[in-house]
Amino acid sequence: MVALIDTHTHLFAEEFDEDRELAIIRATEAGVTRLFMPNIDDTSVEAMLALCNSHDGCYPMIGFHPTSVDENWKERLGTVEKWLRSEQVFYGIGEVGMDLYWDKTFKKEQMEVLDIQVKWALEYDLPLIIHCREAYPELLEVLEPYRKTLLTGIFHSFTGTIEDAHKLMEYSGFMFGINGVVTFKKSILPEVLKSVPLKRLVLETDSPYLAPVPYRGKRNESAYLVKVAEKLSEVYDVSLSEIGRVTSENALKVFKNAENSF
C-alpha cells in the first residue's frame, strides 16, 4: 500500500457528521497517513480543533476563506486572529485567497483580508494555503510585493491554464495542490501539468467537495485520494509509489513543523 498525504481536507464539515470516524478509518486503510485541515472562517474553528486535537495525524490550520468576507469581516477576522495568537498549535494559514466566481461585491475587502493573512504567514513562518477562483489577476496583485520574501505554501485546487501555471511557478516556495479535478473527463489539467514538474505537486481531496472519478457527484472523502494519485501516475508516467513518495516529500517541505510530529 502506497503512503499518501492529504494536504487539504475538511473532514470536520457537517457532511461528515454521520460517519466522521469511519471516514478517518477508511482514509487510514487507503494509505492516507496525514490529514491537513484548513479552516473556513470564525464559525468552523471549534469543530476543526475538536477533530484534530483528538486524532493523531490530523493537522489544523487557521485562516479566513474569501467567500466568507462580508460587511462584518473585521470583527470575524479578529476572532480568527485570536485563535492564531492563542496557545493552540497550527500548521498553516488557510484557507485564504480570492474568489470572484460567485460575487464581486467585496473584491477590495477580499484583497485586504488576503494581504493581512499573508503577513500572518510570514510572522509565524507558516505556509499559506491559497484558494483562487476567477481571480488570478487580483491574487497576483496582492502577492507581488511578497515575491522576494520567504513566503511558502500551496496553490490549492489548481485548475488554471499553462500561462497561470508559469506565473505561479515563479513563487518557488509554493506547491500546486492537485485534487479530483485532474480525473474529470473535460479537465485541461492533465495537459497543463506537462508544464509543471512533479516536484512542485502535492495531493489533496478538498473533501467533501470535488470527488474524483468514479465518485464524481458524490461526497468526497480522504480515502479517495488514491484516485488522484493513480491519475497522476498516468500523467507523469511513473509508478504509484513514486507519486506517493515525491508528493509526500513535497508536503513535508511545505508543512515543516509537521515533519517530526510523530
TrEMBL record:
InterPro entries named in the record: DNase_TatD-rel_CS, Metal_Hydrolase, TatD-like, TatD/YcfH-like
Record key words, sorted: Hydrolase, Metal-binding
Pfam family, one: TatD_DNase
Positions bound to a divalent metal cation 1: 8, 10, 95, 206
Keyword Metal-binding included in the entry's annotation: yes
Any GO molecular function: hydrolase activity, acting on ester bonds
Annotated GO CC locations: cytosol
Residues annotated to bind a divalent metal cation 2: 131, 156
Stored CDD domains: TatD_DNAse (cd01310)
PANTHER family: D-AMINOACYL-TRNA DEACYLASE, HYDROLASE TATD
Family: Belongs to the metallo-dependent hydrolases superfamily. TatD-type hydrolase family.
Protein name: TatD family deoxyribonuclease
Species the sequence originates in: Phocaeicola coprocola
